[in-house]
Automatic annotation (TrEMBL):
Pfam families: Transferase
PANTHER family reported in the protein's UniProt record: ACYL TRANSFERASE 4, OS05G0315700 PROTEIN
Organism: Arabis alpina
UniProt-listed InterPro entries: CAT-like_dom_sf (IPR023213), Plant_acyltransferase (IPR050898)
This protein's record includes keyword ATP-binding: no
Record keywords, A-Z: Transferase
Protein name listed in UniProt: Benzyl alcohol O-benzoyltransferase
Annotated transmembrane regions: none
GO molecular function terms listed in the Swiss-Prot or TrEMBL record: transferase activity
UniProt similarity note: Belongs to the plant acyltransferase family.
Length: 255
């Protein structure tokens, strides 16, 4: 290989210095009980949809497309699930942390996982009743909490507790795959790929995971496609909430 592989896990050695609520031990009933029939749908968000989402936010509020879309989906998904207002809802971001490490930095050929899953937490009532800005700022604060010390603290936690499971109750996990360049793979005589991403929402038996994948729809518009998995009644409410907030039914074409 042009870059020699490196497996120096000792470079991540540290002590637990943060409170990691993403891995706290909880005994709660999930908002999507195991065994409930689920339906999965994909939703396209292009320039028009992102403009509509940003109209729900204060003008001048700095935010990325990831933050705007994630806060919007978190809120709509909560409304769709209709939990008790006091239910604790979680939004977990999967964040690549290689660039956070500098003392010492990871060598170029390091091939181990270097990502963390910080969590934003709010009551269902606050998410459903407060403006979208509330959810967005929580997500921004969660992203900003990922420092080098935080990343090393997660590593130490994994070592000391034997890789504990993250909290699943009330949790919605998002992973941004828009910059992985899946669509640029060259298959020779078969040409470019039509789609490069996950086939459905969820991981194993946990449905509360969505991936953001670059996509070009049938009208030639480029944007982001997001798969969502929910119980049938909740999916119906989710679609109605999107249609209502975006003010345009055509803003949520089904793939």
């Amino acid at each position: 290989p042009s870059v020699p592989p490196v497996w120096d896990r000792h470079l991540l050695t540290a002590s637990v210095t943060h409170t990691h609520r993403e891995y706290e031990e909880k005994d709660e009933i999930d908002t999507i009980p195991i065994g409930v029939p689920l339906v999965s749908r994909s939703f396209f968000f292009g320039a028009g949809e992102f403009s509509a989402i940003r109209r729900l936010l204060p003008s001048g509020l700095h935010n990325t497309t990831f933050e705007a879309l994630t806060s919007f989906l978190w809120r709509c998904r909560t409304v769709a699930l209709s939990p008790n207002p006091n239910t604790e809802m979680r939004l977990t971001c999967i964040i690549n942390s290689r660039g956070k490490l500098s003392n010492p930095p990871l060598p170029q050929g390091y091939y181990g996982n270097v990502f963390v899953i910080p969590v934003a937490i709010a009551s269902a009532g606050d998410l459903m009743e407060k403006p979208l800005e509330f959810a967005l700022r929580l997500i921004q604060e969660t992203k900003a909490s990922v420092t080098e010390d935080y990343v090393r603290s997660v590593t130490a936690l994994m070592t000391s507790r034997g890789r504990p499971m993250f909290v699943t109750a009330g949790n919605y996990i998002v992973s941004d795959l828009r910059h992985f360049d899946f669509g640029k793979v060259d298959f020779g005589p078969w040409g470019k790929p039509v789609y490069g991403g996950t086939a459905k929402a969820g991981i194993a038996v946990f449905p509360g995971v969505s991936f953001y994948v670059p996509f070009k729809n049938k009208m030639g518009e480029t944007g982001t496609v997001v798969a969502i998995s929910l119980p049938v009644p909740a999916m119906e409410r989710f679609v109605k909430e999107l249609d209502h907030l975006l003010k345009r039914p055509e803003c949520v074409p089904r793939i």
